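Thread: quick sanity check before group meeting

JM: Hey all, I'm pulling together slides for Thursday and realized we never actually wrote out the predicted structure for the chain we discussed last week. Dropping the sequence here so it's in one place. If anyone has concerns about the input, flag it before I start.
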Amino acid sequence: MKSIWALQDAKNRLSEVVEHALKEGPQTITRRGKETVVIVSIEDFQKLTATRGSLLSFFQKSPLSSANLDLTRPDDYGREIAL
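JM (edit): ok, ran it. Output follows.
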């Protein structure tokens, strides 16, 4: 079925566009021939925007979290420049 709609067609047939988004997946709307927006079901939108956890929890779950890595850096004061 149709998944790309010209803006004017999408405006005139919004109910149909929404129905397609619910049953078939994302529907792309173009303006002046250029893909502009996508209409997705709320279920798909929530999957895309769901919080996946913090950066800290990501690193804590890493296989390297128990590794004894030396992450200290030497003091670097830059190079001396004669003025």
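AS: nice. Residues 4-51 form a domain with the YefM-like fold fold (CATH 3.40.1620.10). Strands lie at 4-6, 27-31, 34-39.
JM: adding both to the slides.
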